[in-house]
Amino acid sequence: MAQTIAPPTTGVVTPATLPLKAIAPWALFFGVLMLVLLYFIGAEQGATSLLSGTDVHEWVHDGRHLLGFPCH
């Protein structure tokens, strides 16, 4: 019993588009989140310190060196 296989269609496949209104809130959220993380890794423990003590510094110490921020 022979089975025939249909050849694949050669139509053009276009990806689905997402409207900017659907992407903008998420882009803003992640952008602000990245700026907050960058602040805590790069600038916390100095003249602009929001939290007193050295707890934040100790938590982000290795990440600070990995990203090239001086801290001592």
Question: What tags apply to this protein structure?
Answer:
mainly alpha, elongated, 0% strand, 2 helices, 72 residues
Describe this structure in a few short sentences:
The protein has helices at residues 20-42, 55-66.
Largest sheet: none
Order of helices and strands: HH
> Which percent bin holds the helix content?
40-55%
Instruction: Write down the oligomeric state.
Output: single chain
The count of DSSP E runs of length 2 or more, i.e. the number of strands, is 0
Radius of gyration: 25 Å
For the termini, the CA-CA separation is 79 Å
Question: Treating each run of at least 4 consecutive H or I residues as one helix, how many helices?
Answer: 2
What topology emerges from the helices and strands here?
Layout: H1 20-42, H2 55-66
Describe the structure.
The protein has 72 residues and is an all-alpha fold. The protein starts with 19 loop residues before the first helix and ends in a 6-residue tail after the last helix. The chain is built from 2 helices and no strands. The mean pLDDT is 79.
